[in-house]
Design goal:
The chain has 371 residues and is an alpha+beta fold. It has eleven helices and 14 strands.
């Protein structure tokens, strides 16, 4: 593995140039270009934001899952279940990833984006859908409003989908840290999917089995300062398309907002925590018992921000539908329970998102079977 990472070289000549937001900031613009300006109805209004929320997303200590005491394990499982049903978002601590590794991951992300734009261009993504590399425009639709964000997008799991040409060699420890961090996030993701399954009275491997095998990819997002933050978005409102997302961000950050009861609530990043959210495929597989939640990112006039989401997704060929055993259990517990979502192939769902872009919960809601 290390030899593969070390030997990967970037074919600079074949790379296009990424149209980076950072280049606009370096020019010292005072007004953002039209392609970044959201229509008035899509702009973030302070009247819809709960600036001082009484509630925060649950903070869950996973340490109890390792306990020899069944009662302690059950308490943590119950917290996870309630968080999935009531919020769709929660933060976890004592998740098993060393804080030093989390710090290293954040540091290499900062070091990469501290490189000159020309240096980063060596890793520019090729045009097309779902392509790895450095860029700012992740969707294909030509007239789509752009987000105020640069990123590097990398496929991580299984190892066969990795393309080490896009793994930066500067900073020098980037590849080593990324590999270690990804192996740890995979363990956490599998553990959470197992807990979700148990909470639904299913065998522990049910959700993982339903997606064939976990696929993982990562975005390292860089949100530069924006001269007119009220006109644009770091990331427009959307739900994540896969199974679950593990987000690493700087302590105290509250740029990410989630939608709850028609209010947008800023999530304040806790020390040493990962922010977890339920994504679209879990909503379908659980027949809506656990729902994916809309979230968005605001940008700041003065401060840049880095965030690092790792997405746990289904295999492209996975056929996603409400789990039959769960429907049967729900039917036995209440009245007759029918599938509320149509059957889909995960790859088709993924393509729709990257072709047309973030659009609230439009995609998963289109699969709801009309009664």
């Amino acid at each position: 593995m290390c030899e593969e990472m070390a030997s990967a070289e970037v074919a600079v000549v074949t790379k296009p140039r990424a149209d980076a937001v950072e280049m606009l900031v370096e020019k010292g613009i005072s007004a953002i270009p039209e392609k970044y300006i959201r229509p008035p109805e899509e702009r973030f209004s302070s009247t819809t934001v709960d600036c001082e929320p009484v509630e925060q997303v649950p903070l869950i200590d996973l340490q109890g899952l390792n306990s020899c005491e069944a009662r302690e394990r059950e308490e943590v499982l119950k917290e996870l279940h309630n968080a999935c049903e009531d919020w769709g978002f929660f933060q976890i601590v004592n998740h098993g990833i060393p804080e030093s590794l989390m710090e290293d991951m954040m540091n290499i992300a900062k070091a990469f984006f501290a490189l000159s734009v020309n240096e980063k261009q060596a890793y520019a993504a090729l045009p097309g859908l779902i392509t790895q590399g450095y860029g700012s425009k992740y969707i294909e639709k030509k007239d789509a409003t752009r987000d105020w964000r640069d990123y590097i997008y990398l496929l991580l799991q299984p190892h066969s989908i990795r393309d080490y040409d896009y793994w930066p060699s500067n900073p020098p420890n980037f590849r080593e840290v990324l590999h270690s961090y990804n192996e740890e996030t995979l363990k956490v993701a599998k553990r959470l999917l197992g807990a979700f399954s148990l909470n639904l009275s299913l065998p522990e491997n049910s959700l993982e089995k339903a997606i064939i095998e976990p696929y993982q990819n990562m975005l390292i997002n860089y949100y530069p300062p924006c001269p007119q933050p009220e006109l644009t978005a770091g990331f427009y409102a959307h739900s994540d398309i896969g199974m679950a997302t593990l987000l690493l961000q700087e302590t105290g950050s509250k740029a990410l907002q989630i939608r709850k009861n028609d209010k947008w609530i800023p999530v304040i990043a806790a020390p040493g925590a990962l922010l977890v959210n339920v994504a679209d495929q879990v909503e379908i597989l659980t027949n809506g018992r656990y729902k994916s939640i809309e979230h968005r990112v605001v940008v700041d006039k003065e401060k840049p921000r880095i965030s690092i989401p790792v997405f746990c997704d289904a295999a492209p060929e996975a056929i996603i539908k409400p789990i039959p055993e769960l429907l049967k259990k729900m039917e036995e517990a209440t009245t007759e329970e029918k599938a509320k979502y149509s059957t889909i192939v995960y790859k088709n769902h993924e393509i729709a998102f990257y072709k047309y872009g973030a659009n609230s919960k439009k995609y998963v809601q289109s699969y709801i079977v009309s009664s």
